[in-house]
TrEMBL record:
Reactions accelerated catalytically: CMP + ATP = CDP + ADP; dCMP + ATP = dCDP + ADP
Occurrences of domain Cytidylate kinase (ranges): 6-222
Top-level EC class as recorded in UniProt: transferase
Organism: Nostocoides vanveenii
Name of protein: Cytidylate kinase
Gene it is expressed from: cmk
E.C. code: 2.7.4.25
Amino acid sequence: MQPVVVAIDGPSGSGKSSVSRAVARHFGYGYLDTGAMYRAVTVYCLRQGIDLSDADAVVAAAEELPLGLGADPDDPAVTLDEEDIAAAIRTSEVSAVVSAVATNLGVRAVLQDAQRELIDAIAEDWGGVVAEGRDITTVVAPDADVRVLLTASEEARLARRSTELHGSADEAAVAATHDQIVRRDRDDSTVSQFTEAADGVVLLDTSALDFDGSVGALVEIVTATLARAS
Ligand SMILES: Nc1ncnc2c1ncn2[C@@H]1O[C@H](COP(=O)(O)OP(=O)(O)O)[C@@H](O)[C@H]1O
Ligand SMILES: Nc1ccn([C@H]2C[C@H](O)[C@@H](COP(=O)(O)OP(=O)(O)O)O2)c(=O)n1
């Protein structure tokens, strides 16, 4: 059996990470969070005192990054030199500046190459991989067996992230989340196209779905696409 590659893209708060992990678990596949790689470069630069606006220095950091990524959807470990940085990459400080790294085209080239290798290796080890990010369906793995753009309305995405970070989706909490969703997507979309489904990419809008409904819908798309191809 050929290993299966499932590519998922989408804007912030659409549910890429959580839904992709659940879908990987369902099929027994490995999981790759490509956003964690941009975040890890950011943490590394902040710790080394590298100015994020110094494009060449940030590319050099991406090239020498001592990164470890676990593919287990139940425990997607992220390490730098063996140190667990899973929490460090998710701080608001990192979320606020990660787009400066993600819009560095030299960094993107380095990480995209690494992601292609990881996708092949994880798919081989696990029989399949669910890889998620912003440019997986279009640039990193355009030949993936299943390609899905996971979206949700800005309102739904703001409410989800706000609930996750602040435990509420009231007006103040949503306002505090605005930069993380709206400004960051605007910056990120200058280098990747993740607002409209490219040719051959299935659009899954989860605005009206709860978490389990989103997982079920994605499982159905994967199952149907693989059945059609066999
Ligand atoms: N369909 C959904 N309905 C409600 N909440 C969801 C749904 N999908 C994801 N979530 C929740 O929204 C938050 C953001 O999801 P996440 O997977 O981090 O999105 P992304 O990786 O696209 O930024 C998480 O707390 C997640 O549990
Ligand atoms: N394939 C990818 C993955 C992430 N990025 C960028 C976009 C984001 O600003 C950062 C972090 O991505 P991540 O998926 O962790 O972000 P969110 O979970 O949506 O908050 O990296 C990218 O440009 N290309």
